[in-house]
Write a structure and sequence with these properties.
It is a single chain. The protein is α/β, with parallel strands linked by helices. The chain is built from 21 helices and 26 strands. Strand 17, helix 20 and strand 18 form a beta-alpha-beta unit. Helix 4 crosses helix 10 and helix 15 packs across helix 21.
Length: 685
């Protein structure tokens, strides 16, 4: 691919040096190239916008045809259409081919899929015959969005199969490859009919093609994750990456070592240094011949992301211990904070057009850069995350970096990769704002926030997939040890769908960060008048036990009878740190939680319960048992060694039990030597 690009540059140079000669560019394709649905396609189709970007030295022609197929036995083969002959007669110097979308039609792919590769190669050869010196790029197709009427009847699957075939063709045919899928899959708001991009979407295509043709990616660039005071995850290969103009030599100096690499044809570069133990401070320098970045006070330590909704977003300044916590924040010299600040709150008001436009452009969160913990930086940081990180830094004796990415009211599905949702749970994507996955109050907030929207596909932070696109992806693949996740209030009405969505969130996070990613889930606390919460807390418990590498922080005793945002966050963070130290750092000397229920046995009219972490069991209230009729009665609980025996005079033959089965289980008091309460749980034979 690198050799292909250099060859293209030489041809461009030769053509442009010819007297009064413009470089001829042929845009070959279907309705996306043609500009279907764009009212002023002469000015706003992607070839027209590409012409303006390339300038007068180029002659860009649009040879797109609505409904065209690449397959020569398809329902409208491109090689039989007038544009095909016109494109060949043009004898272009540069050819960009975007075909395949219409081949996903059931008339085509199921019957002729095996002919896709030979037909595509035949088209490539046709353009080479017309101009042997032509350089040709083929495109990974633009997305077909989930709302397309044939999405689940084959189109989704066939589209993916074609993309693999296109990659194979590019690798074996000495052509360039332009990816038009990734730049657009995060922008469903640009696809009114789920297939054809708007003028703005066409502009994204034009810019992507322009970069591929010219190698101009805007020079050396780094993500917002690169600032002074950054923390790099220890004991994992250290990867630095960014963008630069194609072929630019990028030099990286870190911790006394040097590496260099050339940016690829897609403008991306990356270098990898060997894993390092904790240490610092180091200096990081990244440069090419035109620009240099330098960062100081860089440490190798532990990095955790802090995500979720309002109880994770809850600021240190709002806590019951705020005064002493903020005063002490400057003493935490091993703690580094990276805050991603919400630009607009999701309260009950209408957003202005400027907010709506920025949200559609995935500009809802602003990365504030790495800061050392201080009274000023910590006061607006997540309180749970702060206390979690402080406890980790103290226990591990190393620098800890925390990345806060939390949005009040956000739904579980908003944290899932939309590509994962499209494959595993597409129903949640359809008419999300009027559906019933997230709770009605959350969807009501969405409707109020976007009431002034002009685009009927207006996005919102609670939309399925949005915070993955606008939050997680902004972290630029920054290596983290794990994610502490406190969320669920917006999904607590339906624990079954939450369980499915949480698993998909874990899948998304591990696709992004790696299969060894640790996840610490904070269970919902106690509150009155939320009848579904005991069920929900039990589902969270079951998820933590069934998914490898997922821990659980119990805080039902730290709730409030009427406030969904209890102010005592310090123990939530500290309990989470204790769990993580045991589960993910091998601290076997630490008791990670309260008693963890395992099973029960029937002993006549009694039930005997077994637990993990059963040292020092203590209980007086909180249990109920039931017989075959399913009616529960309060049970007397007696500790016998490392077990608990339950009985109730109303239940002669018990076969079911539950513990802390109230929205706010204030009286439930099952603990162990750690003093941490047991989770809500239930079981039956």
């Amino acid at each position: 691919m690198r050799r292909f690009f250099l060859s293209a540059i030489l041809i461009l140079s030769a053509v442009m040096l010819s007297a009064q000669t413009r470089v001829k560019v042929a845009c070959v394709g279907d309705s996306v190239t043609y500009g279907y649905g764009i009212s002023d396609r002469d000015n706003d189709s992607y070839p027209a916008q590409l012409q303006r970007m390339l300038g007068e030295g180029y002659d860009v022609r649009n040879f797109g045809h609505n409904g065209a197929t690449l397959l020569r036995k398809g329902h409208r083969p491109y090689n039989t259409l007038p544009e095909y002959g016109e494109a060949l007669d043009f004898k272009a110097d540069l050819v960009i081919i975007h075909l395949g979308l219409n081949d996903t039609d059931p008339r085509n792919w199921p019957n002729y899929s095996e002919e896709f590769i030979p037909d595509y190669k035949a088209l490539i050869n046709d353009f080479r015959a017309a101009n042997p010196n032509a350089k040709i790029w083929i495109c990974r197709m633009t997305p077909i969005m989930h709302g397309h009427w044939r999405f689940l009847s084959g189109t989704r699957d066939w589209h993916a199969q074609e993309q693999k075939a296109i990659d194979q063709i590019a690798a074996t045919s000495d052509v360039g490859l332009i990816d038009l899928f990734e730049p657009l899959i995060t922008r469903p708001d640009l696809f009114a009919d789920n297939l054809h991009p708007s003028p703005e979407g066409a502009g994204i295509i034009a810019k992507t093609v322009y970069e591929a043709l010219t190698g101009d990616f805007g020079g050396l660039q780094l993500s917002a994750m690169y600032t002074d005071n950054m923390v790099i995850q220890r004991d994992k290969p250290i990867r630095f990456s960014g963008k630069a103009d194609c072929g630019a030599k990028v030099k990286v100096r870190f911790a006394g070592k040097k590496q260099s690499v050339e940016a690829g044809t897609d403008g991306r570069w990356a270098v990898e240094f060997p894993a390092m133990p904790v240490g610092g401070p180091y200096r990081l320098e990244i440069s090419d011949k035109t620009k240099e970045f330098a960062f100081s006070n860089v440490w190798v330590g532990e990095v955790w992301a802090c995500a979720g909704q309002s109880n994770m977003e809850f600021k240190l300044a709002q806590c019951s211990t705020a005064k002493e916590d903020i005063a002490a924040a400057g003493e935490q010299d091993r703690l580094h904070l990276f805050n991603m600040k919400e630009n607009w709150l999701t309260y009950d008001f209408e957003w202005p057009q400027s907010a709506l436009d920025s949200v559609n452009h995935l500009q809802y969160l602003t990365p504030m850069g790495w800061e050392m913990s201080s009274s000023d930086s910590a006061k607006d940081f997540t309180a749970v995350g702060y206390h979690f990180g402080r406890a980790l830094a103290d226990s591990l004796g190393c620098h800890v970096g925390l990345i806060s990415c939390a949005v009040g009211g956000s739904t579980t599905e908003s944290w899932v990769d939309r590509k994962v949702l499209a494959w595993d749970y597409p129903q949640v994507l359809n008419d999300w704002i009027n559906g019933d996955f997230g709770q009605e109050w959350a969807r009501g907030r969405c409707r109020k926030n976007i009431a002034q929207a002009i685009n009927p596909l207006q996005r919102h932070p609670y939309q399925p997939g949005y915070l993955y696109d606008a939050g997680i992806l902004q972290m630029d693949g920054w290596n983290v040890k794990g994610v502490i996740f406190y969320q669920g209030e917006s999904n607590a009405h339906c624990m079954e769908t939450y369980a499915d969505l949480f698993k998909l969130m874990v899948k998304s996070f591990r696709n992004y960060w790696g299969d060894d990613l640790a996840i610490q889930m904070v269970q919902l606390s106690g509150i009155g008048n939320r009848p579904s919460w005991p069920w929900f807390r039990d589902v969270q418990r079951r998820l933590s036990e069934s998914i490898s590498g997922v821990g659980l922080t119990v805080c039902s005793d730290l709730g409030h009878p009427t406030d969904v945002h209890p102010k005592d966050k310090k123990p939530v963070g500290e309990r989470s740190a204790v769990c993580v130290l045991h589960d993910f750092y091998g601290r076997g000397d630490v008791i990670p939680s309260g008693p963890v229920y395992r099973s029960f046995a029937v002993e006549g009219g009694r039930l005997r319960l077994s637990f993990d972490y059963a040292e020092g069991l203590s209980v007086s209230k909180g249990f109920e048992i039931a017989g075959a009729d399913g009616i529960y009665y309060p049970a007397d609980a007696k500790v016998e060694g490392k077990t608990i025996v339950l009985q109730a005079k109303e239940v002669k033959n018990p076969c079911a039990l539950r513990y802390a089965w109230q929205p706010n289980p204030a009286e439930a008091d099952l603990t162990n030597i750690s003093g941490i309460p047991a989770s809500t749980f239930r079981d039956e034979k």
